[in-house]
Backbone:
């Protein structure tokens, strides 16, 4: 009969750690560029971690004691009995190599958590802290005459003062399905972000100040122009000439208690039609210079969420 093995079980080389590392990398990259990619990375990492741990723990199962009769010397006493065999088995259940493997895995997990937690915290904390995410009251509806743009400047976060001042071009389009319809255009140029200006005079004499909000009606404008590189837009914010890659961004809005509130900005590839009947092709807010539709949007480098 062969003697029982006297060395601990050591698992053979495995690809599971490599898969786990790939999943962790995808997770990290996903946290920066997209939650979908992050979720995929998490699934890959968890799947390979499970397989890896299963492999490791499979070796720690009780190695069955050889079912052999104790050897006896010809005339001597019996070989060590069951108590000695049990002690030997207990020693082999947690060999040093297994301990080192499991501690390395645990330590890696702890370090990964320490590295990842701050990044995840910075990513999701703003959603709970409501930083600058509040809708902004830019005055009563009666301050917005039909068919005319009004230049509205306001502090997006009054606690931060003038550095948070933003400008929107707001036009009342009349009622649509019984509700007031507005066009609210951002003044950030879709080329490099310079402040675009209305192509027409302002009625400075009609200027109004309501808390941090300043309203100045325009007389009649022929679109918007950018002073930096000559980008031009029509009255719906569509690019008409120059380097901008898309239409001007817009603000979502809501109406409460007779006041107009601005919400989150969003990007627009182009607008079909005009006024209340216009069809706006909306996109998630993009950086200036970033195409949001067509082939160029696929060729443009991936941007982090913002
Ligand atoms: S930033 Fe407006 S055209 Fe360049």
Residues:
């Amino acid at each position: 009969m062969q003697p029982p093995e006297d060395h601990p079980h050591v698992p053979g080389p495995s690809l599971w750690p490599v898969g786990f590392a790939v999943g962790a990398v995808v997770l990290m990259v996903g946290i920066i560029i997209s939650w979908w990619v992050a979720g995929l990375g998490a699934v890959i990492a968890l799947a390979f971690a499970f397989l890896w741990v299963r492999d490791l723990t499979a070796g720690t199962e009780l190695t069955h004691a050889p079912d052999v009769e104790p050897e006896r010397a010809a005339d001597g006493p019996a070989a060590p009995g069951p108590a000695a065999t049990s002690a030997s088995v207990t020693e082999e259940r947690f060999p040093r190599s297994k301990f080192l493997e499991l501690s390395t895995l645990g330590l890696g997990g702890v370090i990964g958590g320490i590295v990842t937690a701050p990044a995840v915290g910075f990513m999701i904390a703003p959603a709970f802290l409501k930083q600058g995410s509040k809708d902004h009251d830019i005055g009563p509806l009666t301050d917005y005459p039909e068919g005319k743009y009004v230049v509205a400047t306001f502090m997006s976060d009054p606690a931060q003062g003038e550095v948070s001042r933003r400008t929107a071009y707001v036009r009342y389009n009349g009622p649509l399905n019984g509700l007031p319809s507005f066009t609210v255009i951002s003044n950030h140029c879709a080329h490099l972000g310079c402040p675009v200006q209305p192509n027409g005079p302002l009625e400075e004499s009609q200027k109004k100040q309501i808390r941090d909000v300043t309203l100045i009606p325009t007389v009649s404008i022929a679109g918007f122009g950018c002073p930096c590189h000559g980008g031009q837009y029509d009255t719906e914010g569509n690019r008409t000439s120059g380097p901008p890659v898309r239409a001007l961004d817009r603000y979502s809005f809501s109406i409460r208690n007779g006041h107009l509130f601005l919400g989150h900005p969003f990007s627009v590839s182009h607008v079909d039609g005009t006024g209340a009947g216009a069809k706006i092709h909306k996109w998630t807010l993009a950086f200036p210079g970033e195409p949001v539709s067509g082939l160029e949007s696929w060729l443009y480098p991936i941007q982090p969420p913002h």
